[in-house]
Write a structure and sequence with these properties.
This protein is an alpha+beta fold. Helix content is about 40%, strand content about 15%. It is built from 13 helices and twelve strands. Strands 6, 7, 8 and 9 form a four-stranded antiparallel beta sheet that branches. Strands 2-1-3 form a three-stranded antiparallel beta sheet. A hairpin with a 6-residue loop joins strand 8 (about 190) and strand 9 (about 200-205). Helix 1 crosses helix 2 and helix 6 (about 120-130) crosses helix 9 (about 210-235). It is globular and about 65 Å long. The chain starts with 10 loop residues before the first helix and ends with a helix.
């Protein structure tokens, strides 16, 4: 995702954009009031927050991964807390470092966004890229300019993880390997506050701390929403088919099997796959129809809970009478050949 598309907006700011009005306090209040009168609808976006759209809640619930909510405006948080009898926003923010607790109704209960925690490296990276921007978003209502060291950034992350052990041990080098967005800004030596030591810091635009818990909630709920959507498909009779591919890299067969097994386990646990097919040694641009020939039987025998290769997948498509949802790991997991994917879809449709 482009760094620019990670800029956050409040729902009231998005309402101004939706109506083509200048973003200011008066317009935000009025535009948000109008949007609020659209019963059964919410203001959402798909990829770029600067392209808001009004969508029915029913449609949002059907596509929970596609449609994203905006951050609540500070005044909206106050209204929600008053409605649910929670402490006022003023009292919640007497300490600058404290978080505003945003609440939501979940299955008839109130759930606090401060209860959510980052659980893995992927979630930590997303949090870094959402909170620490390497450019000026020109949105003082949500961001503040700060000079931060990598250690400062790690300290912020530490507040939102299940356990500090889940933070990569060599945090600076890990951020470099993962191309964390804040590294786009060159670091400069600066004097650390409180002592004479000079350390490297970057000028970053940081999302206000009161919104950090909301960002964590949004990140951690992604898997929940994904599985809810997958389960709805399964309940309607759709077969969830997982597909994992391993490139022609030089590792030993035992390592290849281990990595493939990890992928298949993720397809089962995260995407609730009913059947899983693998391509143990193929390139991402290799034609699907020609993969896994001859059959890599020794590798298949070493894998658990696998239903076959790409050729067996084609056999399933030719014989099943059920609809299929194909889930592949990462963008190159299925194929980087766009035309070949079209051919796969045409092949599947020819048997419907």
């Amino acid at each position: 995702m482009s760094s620019r598309k990670r800029v956050k907006l409040t729902e009231s700011q998005a309402a101004c954009i939706y109506f083509g009005e200048e973003i200011n306090e008066i317009n935000e209040r009025e535009c948000h009031r109008i949007i609020s009168n659209y019963r059964g609808s919410r203001l959402v976006y798909t990829e770029d927050p600067q392209e808001p759209q009004v969508m029915s809640i029913c449609r949002i619930n059907c596509r929970p991964i596609t449609y994203q909510y905006y951050l609540p405006a500070f005044s909206m948080v106050a209204q929600e807390q008053q409605e649910f009898g929670l402490p006022s926003v003023a009292s919640a923010t007497e300490n600058e470092s404290s978080l505003v607790t945003v609440t939501m109704k979940t299955e008839g209960q109130l759930q606090s966004s401060s209860e959510y925690k980052l659980a893995n490296h992927a979630q930590i990276l997303q949090f870094l890229n959402d909170v620490f921007l390497p450019f000026n978003p020109y949105n003082d209502a949500l961001y503040e300019e700060q000079y931060l060291s990598t250690s400062d950034i790690r300290s912020v992350v530490a507040k939102h993880v299940i356990d500090t052990k889940s933070i990569p041990g060599d945090f600076p080098n890990w951020c470099t390997r993962k191309n964390a967005a804040f590294l786009e800004v060159k670091s400069n030596l600066a004097r650390d506050s409180g002592n004479q030591k000079r350390i490297r810091k970057r000028r970053l635009y940081t999302l206000l701390s009161r919104y950090h818990a909301t960002i964590v909630q949004s990140i951690t709920e992604t898997l929940i929403k994904h599985q809810r959507q997958i389960q709805a498909m399964k309940d309607s009779g759709i077969i969830i088919v997982g597909y994992a591919r391993k490139s022609k890299t030089p590792e030993k067969d035992c390592d290849r099997v281990r990595l493939l097994q990890e992928m298949t386990l993720k397809l089962q646990s995260r995407s609730l796959a009913d059947r899983i097919y693998v391509s143990p040694r193929t390139s991402s641009d290799e034609l699907l129809r020609s993969r896994d020939m001859p059959r890599p039987q020794s590798l298949l025998d070493a894998l658990n809970n696998v239903n076959g290769t790409t050729q067996d997948l084609f056999e399933l498509l030719a014989t099943t009478t059920s609809k299929i949802c194909l889930v592949a790991i990462d963008f190159a997991g299925l194929s980087t050949n766009e035309n070949d994917i079209y051919e796969l879809i045409k092949y599947a449709n020819s048997y419907l």
